[in-house]
Amino acid sequence: CDGSGAGVGAGHGGRGTGAGVGSGLEVVSDGRASCSLADGEYGKEQELIRRECSMGMDDPDRTSGQLMLRTAYPRHPYRLPVIGDIQVFDQLTQQDVTDYYQARYVPNNLTFVIVGAVAAGQVYAQPAEYFQAYPEQSPKPVYIPDAPPQTGPPQVNDASATQPPRPPPPR
Questions:
Q1: CA distances, 67 to each of 7, 155, 162 (Å)
Q2: How far is CA 64 from the centre of its chain?
Q3: Contact, 21 vs 126, CB < 8 A?
Q4: Other residues' Cβ atoms within 10 Å of the Cβ of residue 32
Q5: pLDDT, tens digit, for every residue of 141-170?
Q6: SS (HEC) of the chain
Q7: pLDDT confidence of residue 93
Q8: Predicted confidence (pLDDT) per residue in 38-63, tens digit
Q9: Which of 67, 79, 86, 142 is at 20 to 30 A from 128, Cα to Cα?
Q10: How confident is the model at residue 19 (pLDDT cuts 50, 70, 90)?
């Protein structure tokens, strides 16, 4: 939601055997090629994200984590919530989201992490196979300002109204 494309992690995870690497890459490459959002679905997805943002504001773990990131990275995009800033998000149109996706989710801007009992030589070449139909693009660079010099330990105090943590379910 932040629109910068930096410091934002999006991932697709899966589990399987070494033999499943190809099918996993096929799913990811097909998702890149045919990812779309049907008319009328954008509003539903917006509401889902708004609820997620709202729930995060009531979670002491999330709010303290965000406070730590804002304090440690006052200018860097790491300070922003991964899900984005709701005020920015509310201004986005479906076309904005589509344009962002097409500009940033390009094959040469993806990172694959494959671990386990696989034949590294075989697996290493597979992403190129599955993404050869998609032209490489040079995403526009994202400006990330230098961090200000620290003249002392960063400190912040915050009194947020949050819901108390829920106890774990009984076993």
A1: 16, 10, 14
A2: 19
A3: yes
A4: 19
A5: 888 888 888 888 888 888 766 666 667 778
A6: CCCCCCCCCCCCCCCCCHHHHHHHHHHHHHHHHHCCCCCCHHHHHHHHHHHHHHHHHCCHHHHHHHHHHHHHCCCCHHHCCCCCCHHHHCCCCHHHHHHHHHHHCCHHHCCCCCCCCCCHHHHHHHHHHHHCCCCCCCCCCCCCCCCCCCCCCCCCCCCCCCCCCCCCCCC
A7: 92
A8: 878 999 999 999 998 888 777 888 88
A9: 142
A10: low
Cβ contact 50:43 at 8 Å: no
Whole-structure pTM value: 0.66
Q: What's CA 78's distance to the chain center, in Å?
A: 11
